[in-house]
User: What shape does this take?
Amino acid sequence: PRIAGKQLELLREAVPRAPRIAVLWNPRTQGNDLALREVEGAGRTLGVELQVVEAYSPDDLDSAFRAMTAKRAGAVHVLGDVMFTSSAASLAQLAARDRRPAMYSQREFVDAGGLMSYGPRLADNFRRAATYVDKILKGAKPGDLPIEQPTTFELVINANAVRALGVAIPPSLLSRANRVIQ
Assistant: This one.
């Protein structure tokens, strides 16, 4: 959950003049309440006014973005969620339609046209999972294996979205990006 606060910090750095930042989340996803609390704490520290917007299914996304427009959210932070990931293209299109800069938890959103993402490299997680499967198939007890957390994170920025949104990403943020998609 702590990564959600870092994501908000990076989004704030990208759009420092956004009057309000919406936080899109799915309350039904286990662990998202912890991520939301982390974002709220980071928001207080950064002096950012947040608008929490719920979406339970892909059918809720359009109305969620209308709610952001009604409250004049200048950007949106999309918390990590499988349902959101499966709707990456729709979310990127909604953000583009509303000219709303968005921070996502996975690179797939940026590949679909979203502005930026910061999160663990999923390919690394899959490789580590394969190592665990190998150990279990060789007789290791799953309960005896240590719990691991991601150690490699990447910041990805979509240059096309930057231009389309008219966002001036600070050079210091661009220089920290692991990848800038042209």
